[in-house]
Amino acid sequence: MTVTPTRAETTATTATGNGTSVDPDDVTIAYIGGGSRQWAPNLIQDLAQSPLDGEVRLYDTHHESAEQNARFGNWVQDQEGATADWQYEATETLEATLTGADVVIISTQYDPAETFVHDLDIPKEYGIYGAVAATIGPGGIFRAMRTIPQYREFAAAIREYCPDAWVFNYTNPVHFVTRALYDEYPGINALGLCHEVLGTRHRLARYAREELDMDAERSDVSVNVKGINHFTWVDEARCKGVDLWPVLEDLVESEHAHQEFTWDDLAEESVFTDNWQVTWELFRRFDVLPAAGDRHLIEYATWFMQGGQEGLNRWGVKRTGSDYRAKHWTPAESDQTTDVEAWLSGEKEFELTESNETFVDILLALAGEDTYVTNVNLPNVGQVEDLQSDAVVETNALIRAGEVRPVSAGGFPRPVRSLIRGHIDTIETVIEASRDGDLDAAFEGFLIDQQIRTLQTEDARELFAKLVVAEEEYLEDWDLEGSSVLAESEAYTSA
Amino acid sequence: MTVTPTRAETTATTATGNGTSVDPDDVTIAYIGGGSRQWAPNLIQDLAQSPLDGEVRLYDTHHESAEQNARFGNWVQDQEGATADWQYEATETLEATLTGADVVIISTQYDPAETFVHDLDIPKEYGIYGAVAATIGPGGIFRAMRTIPQYREFAAAIREYCPDAWVFNYTNPVHFVTRALYDEYPGINALGLCHEVLGTRHRLARYAREELDMDAERSDVSVNVKGINHFTWVDEARCKGVDLWPVLEDLVESEHAHQEFTWDDLAEESVFTDNWQVTWELFRRFDVLPAAGDRHLIEYATWFMQGGQEGLNRWGVKRTGSDYRAKHWTPAESDQTTDVEAWLSGEKEFELTESNETFVDILLALAGEDTYVTNVNLPNVGQVEDLQSDAVVETNALIRAGEVRPVSAGGFPRPVRSLIRGHIDTIETVIEASRDGDLDAAFEGFLIDQQIRTLQTEDARELFAKLVVAEEEYLEDWDLEGSSVLAESEAYTSA
Amino acid sequence: MTVTPTRAETTATTATGNGTSVDPDDVTIAYIGGGSRQWAPNLIQDLAQSPLDGEVRLYDTHHESAEQNARFGNWVQDQEGATADWQYEATETLEATLTGADVVIISTQYDPAETFVHDLDIPKEYGIYGAVAATIGPGGIFRAMRTIPQYREFAAAIREYCPDAWVFNYTNPVHFVTRALYDEYPGINALGLCHEVLGTRHRLARYAREELDMDAERSDVSVNVKGINHFTWVDEARCKGVDLWPVLEDLVESEHAHQEFTWDDLAEESVFTDNWQVTWELFRRFDVLPAAGDRHLIEYATWFMQGGQEGLNRWGVKRTGSDYRAKHWTPAESDQTTDVEAWLSGEKEFELTESNETFVDILLALAGEDTYVTNVNLPNVGQVEDLQSDAVVETNALIRAGEVRPVSAGGFPRPVRSLIRGHIDTIETVIEASRDGDLDAAFEGFLIDQQIRTLQTEDARELFAKLVVAEEEYLEDWDLEGSSVLAESEAYTSA
Amino acid sequence: MTVTPTRAETTATTATGNGTSVDPDDVTIAYIGGGSRQWAPNLIQDLAQSPLDGEVRLYDTHHESAEQNARFGNWVQDQEGATADWQYEATETLEATLTGADVVIISTQYDPAETFVHDLDIPKEYGIYGAVAATIGPGGIFRAMRTIPQYREFAAAIREYCPDAWVFNYTNPVHFVTRALYDEYPGINALGLCHEVLGTRHRLARYAREELDMDAERSDVSVNVKGINHFTWVDEARCKGVDLWPVLEDLVESEHAHQEFTWDDLAEESVFTDNWQVTWELFRRFDVLPAAGDRHLIEYATWFMQGGQEGLNRWGVKRTGSDYRAKHWTPAESDQTTDVEAWLSGEKEFELTESNETFVDILLALAGEDTYVTNVNLPNVGQVEDLQSDAVVETNALIRAGEVRPVSAGGFPRPVRSLIRGHIDTIETVIEASRDGDLDAAFEGFLIDQQIRTLQTEDARELFAKLVVAEEEYLEDWDLEGSSVLAESEAYTSA
After folding, report:
1. How many CB pairs lie under 8 A apart between chains A and C?
2. Where is composition skewed (Low complexity) in this entry (chains A, B, C, D) (predicted)?
């Protein structure tokens, strides 16, 4: 009999970390992935207009990009509208970046766009039409397998150099990656952040304006949100206290919620356009409202993927083409308007703008300037009572001076719970496998993935092997040689 | 906030019922479905050779069949080898059948073979190649939907007429049906019984003979078994105390466990032939051994179904043809050798034989003649620690005088647990829906079924509607008119 | 086998109610117990200075007191400093009081002071020196037994007349009483409120001033709080973001935390004086900080009660004398400064003052004017992960427009958890017993109470019987005649 | 935030070990504590009459006693009635004893009788009148603190020398000690064994004879048993299938169950006499039947201890005097009839007798000769659904060839569950403290013990310190110097 201690019996847990106290006049921010071309310039501008002062260290494997952002950061301080005082510096080691940091931002892209093309195209050969293919399903799992080992390194470095820092993870797949940070360093104070729920609140504000004639914007809408990243659900929504449920119940029966689309309807639209038809159908079925873009939802409610390209289009979803991926590094860059070089050289006129990001709001709350509530990804310590303990779940959190604490969000109707728990099982299986780089154990998670379960046994193995072959150079932390799954697959052995 | 009491906080539960004490010299057995052409004659012969005496009441909607079995039962008492003393009578009401009964056997087939043909053929139109289509998946769910209401009636009648009786349910889908009995009458002492695990022990005895040169038969093999009916798993197996795991670990790597089959290989085989290739593949993957026929396993580990007829055949599984179903009522009758009429008329010579059924063994144990251990289906009170409470699970049980008590079987590796928990969610959703005949709620269970999740949204709804249309006359307890799912489906509205 | 459904498997729960939307310009408040001489005048003054307008209905078994408060309420509108517009009315039925109410305040005292004297004095005969004797232990249990039936009536009336109203319960024992409201009407939106944790934050602000030289008041101090009412604990505390733990760890080792008291030291002090010596000792022992007055804590950490009067005094606790109780209705009235009659008659000069109550702050937040965080008592839906589900626990809650939602507070070190779970078992046993008025079942809760476990078997029964005899007229909802415990007790049978 | 993995999410567990297969013709038994004067000679005689053959290695810190038992063991083989073939040998190291063993018996007494005297007498000074003082309460905890470190060594040696052996622990406190074995070596196949439940079945057989006129002995009585060692409960009992509950319900109302005793009544009785008055009172109160001697029960249902010596006597319990302890090593030796020396020398006539021990029955079952059901102590993997996971609980187990598996026993009425969970919290706290020898952490377990909670704070600390002072030399694995509890106690600092 093997008996291992259960948490509830052996440890008192608190629902948040004991993070660094943030001094609004002297914040040290370490930015891993600080060479980013879109997110970093946005942050720099947000900070310049904030009531906070301090220092930002930019670290990137592309050191030159970090240096350019540092130049830009220091330059922005002198531009019109910049009221804060921030110093920027490009760093070359994790130690130099992290030592003494109060806040760590992690937003990286480890492997080249090429891998994303594989994540989209190879599964497609097997009839798996992921719309994004970056957070669950074969593409999401392989992205996780490439990314997790690197994040274990970050977590270990944080434990060594700034164990109490507040860590903001923006890297996808947020649930896998945030979980890996906690798995490596259980004492970390990390939050996984994502825009999808903000988008839902934005949309709900629109309905409040249109249907209730209210003067409403995103911040007027409050929701009770729960689930896992990209498969979050809302079961209460209010605009300035007014219950929006009756509005939703009307709309779901209307034509608005019964639209069908064809490729032609979507041809000119951005892949990010969200037609909410998947959302309405799920709401109609289960009486809770999904709170993520349709392009993400279909990868978790996999029956929407079973009609191929045409089936996706019918529900208003336009698949991220791999050609798109080949051109752009991350979805966030799709509408890229920043051109740091042109601004610095004066080639392009610069005007200080504010992004919609919540980072500065969160930082202000941590520094004690406000009480802020927003959705974050954190290990489950009861905030979603019927999902697995310790899995990284997404709910609202209360953020105050030195404190981030999830808000109790309750549970789910059984069918929705069943879907989410299934996805968590995939995630947890891969996380556990990643401890030793056990590829066959990761394949068990792959095999029970809800997208992959449409493949027959041999095909699932072959798909797995082909992805390994295509992305082998980015899987160096995994034990390929010891894998019997690969050994059984001609796709690998003959490669 | 809606708060309902949880069991653990409000009720002391015991792991078995407080059943009737069974007097070996005077057992009253009520047999619902007692007109059976195969199982009843077998039982009659088993009882005739047992050390038990008593009375059997045969109840059947086909009263004549029950009468014929009663004649046969009384006639058998006078045949050579019959040592016990049993009286048989055909009854016409549940009241007359159940009043004062110590033991109730339920083994019925409510609806005609035609419905089974639909269960197999309509899903096949949608690419769902169930091998049996009778316990999970679209066919299994519809069989459950037709059967559950009737079993609620049986449970209510048992509560009224013989509340402490021991109830043996042999009707499929065993997990749905046994659960319905408990859902209707929580105090019932019901066991769900099935042969599949016995088959695994039989097979393991063969391996002990062949690989270890032991003198072994089924009763020499003990296993630790757990799961749900038809998706049960073994993680320890011994023959006379000798650990069989090393044998299995050798075999799974051998040619024996790497056979591929074609239709031609299977053409002459019975649909019940079990080639164990699905079993070996699952064992290879998850390190626990499935303990049900391959034809059942593929319906729960649904990736084996994704290659259509050919894919099933490749793994050695021959699909139950609907033509077969049209001819035979139940699988058990496939090898039918009984011909009661011919025996009674003397046309065919009669020789008393013993079946392999465990019923008499269990009865003897309940009567205090022995301690008996066998696999049974019971509500989960902890015997499978990581499956849902109260779901009907299958494990070994200890059976002694007046007592049936599940044996603690531990838990599962996460991926296997994930699959099983998912199936339980389907079952529990349908059971809950059946309380009020809420068809849309049942559709939620249908939609999350692991076979059906290969369909796109519209197809799942259409398949559901077509099955309703085809089997409407056997679904009279369900609220078809109030169903918005049906209202949305042209397949129904135009029918 | 008796199987009842568990919540987690059958119901989706949300962590708060779907309460009425509160319009700040038109709030209807129903006040049960509205004849109060202290709390009502305070509330009237707080409302007069708030940005809210509306109507208050005062209901009381002493109708005249309610009428006087109504006169006072209407009169206050015209006094200097009153900026809001409120109408007051004394009502005579629950129907008239509750119909259409947005908010219900419940703060009552059912039975006369005499019963409190019994609660203190009779247990004292058995060596049980409760300091308050009003929330746990023999006195607390009997107070609960007298109060619960009445609150079941209130809950039923709320379900009928204003099912979505926000219900504020101020009546002790808060955990028992709030639980009874939910037990009777699971859909109620009730909060249990209490001052103790506010007192702790007040004290922590003092330490921040004294030890850290900060400019600090109660509202600057944030804590992570959890437990049950009057036995709440803090495991994180900050003042304006600054971690107070190091301060506490210093103080606990200092002389400040090692004071001993005698009766003489306490003679002149109010019974409400809190010397924090019990608090320090518990902190020293378990590394988490209790957050309730020492006079309450000793009744839950019962070893502090084992030295009688002297033992209490040594720890700085002054017992509430029963003579005190006989004079005053409720503890809150001890420092009574209100004299409505004198104000109305002009005998005493009136000056509008503000109380420290959080009621108006909560109301403002519910009306969407603010985001407010304070400690409240709510059924456990995961906010304290290792306490019993559904028990009423105390943690912080996030309060926003139309929404009250507990904040995840984590769990406990095992020894503290053990104490709390034990008290919850007493509470839940009595609540369950109260459903049918089963006195013997209530005695089981009494017997396992941690104060009473110091009595031998016969004495526990006798104490129970004596309390029944003394308070019989207020226990009319309990089945005294059917009680075998009473039948066994000479104290009852001879009474 | 600190997150540790929970068992249910990360590990598949099985409910028993994968123990050594036992060959009935060649069993190697390692007996730690094999110098025992009573239990060893009994075992030797039982083995001599069994159908098993093999070898026994006797290991004892008193090597001479082991040698004498070895001589006796080899001598017995030649006596009349001895049919089996066993070789005995006294060993001098754990390595020599354990290497290759199939079965390990552990039954030791580490520290001299003097410590037991302290365990009884020092608490008595504080009004704690333990009847046995050896399994819970101050005496039990200190006995555990002295014993656990040694058993960690045994567990480590077993892991090294015979990792798959079946380990039988007979040493008290059985729950603490068996838990320590698993805590040190989670893969151990250890059972904790005890006679108390056998005594209950013996008593129930007597009632079956007396009240039902049945021909009954212990083995005819089956019970559903659950709880922790010495605080086990029965909620179903049958004799040859006949429900004994009606008999118990009659008896509990009779004079038989309402006896009162005085010292004079008990003066001549053995301390082991069991008058069942505590048992009846608990049954009367909670409707489940305790299944341990009254002298043990009172230490867990501590209200029976609150009347001092007289109070114990009134309930028919005679306290184990410390004078008794000073003379005898273990309770089991009270009726000692063995005199190995006299037998060997021929001074006393020897007649082979059989003990009532279950050891040989269990061994036969493990060797595949039988299916055996008896009560054993094992980590909780669901067999008692509402007690803490992994705590060592006592239920029936099914024992077959190579297999010991707990039987699902269900849960408890809330008040009984509350008492047991409280005791488990004490046990688990001490076990956890013992990992690092953290004395202050152990004191937390001491402080929440249900016997000790009758002491005031200072007295609890003083009692703890006095016990440490008295038994210091047997506590060498604990960190006395680092203990702040001791540093605060004059009883220690001045000693």
Report:
1. 165
2. 1-16
